Amino acid sequence: MVMKKRGAKKSGKKSAKKSSAKKAKKVMRKAAPRKAAKKKSARKPNAAFMKPLTPTGPLAAIIGSTPMPRTEVTSKIWAYIKRNKLQDSVNRRNINADEKLRPLFGKAQATMFELTKYVSRHLR
After folding, report:
1. CB-side exposure of 75: number of CA atoms within 13 Å?
2. Residue 115 structural domain
3. Does 9 reside within a domain?
4. 40 falls within a domain
5. What residues does 79 pair with on adjacent strands?
6. Backbone dihedral region for residue 57 (phi beyond 0: left; psi -120 to 50: alpha; all else: beta)
7. What's the pLDDT score for residue 45?
8. d(CA 65, CA 83)
9. What is the CATH number of the domain that holds 113?
């Protein structure tokens, strides 16, 4: 007596029906209309960065004591560092302090990532 496996044939038919139903759903999803993309508005500057702050103490000796935004303070400090060639030649992330920067940093050398920490102490 040879027995036929009926379960295998039935499951094969069901899976074929299911896969064709899945394909039909995918086609329907693709055909759905997409929402219109939002128009990009002009980028507005952050008000906190643009607020004029007054440099005090050793920072005022380097960039002046007139009120200016944080972004401009950072630009002026970097201009001073580049003009006086204070960036370390081996490790460019380090800034070597001269007579004016030493009171600001409190040490002989600081990294560029520490720069904002030291600068924010002297802004009012």
Report:
1. 6
2. 47-120
3. no
4. no
5. none
6. left
7. 74
8. 20
9. 1.10.245.10
Would you state the pLDDT for residue 27?
Answer: 57
Q: With contact defined as beta carbons under 8 Å apart, do 93 and 51 qualify?
A: no
Determine the residue type at 48: A
Residues ≥6 apart with Cβ < 8 Å to 84: 98
Question: How many structural domains comprise the chain?
Answer: 1
**Cα torsion 77, 78, 81, 83: sign:** negative
What pLDDT is stored for residue 23 in this prediction?
59
User: pLDDT value at position 47?
Assistant: 83
- Interatomic CA distance for residues 47 and 75, integer angstroms: 18
Token output for 19: 């896969």
Residue 43: per-residue pLDDT = 81
Mean pLDDT for each 10-residue chunk of the chain (124 residues)?
59 57 58 65 80 95 95 95 96 96 96 94 94
* Other Cβ atoms within 10 Å of 96 Cβ, number: 17
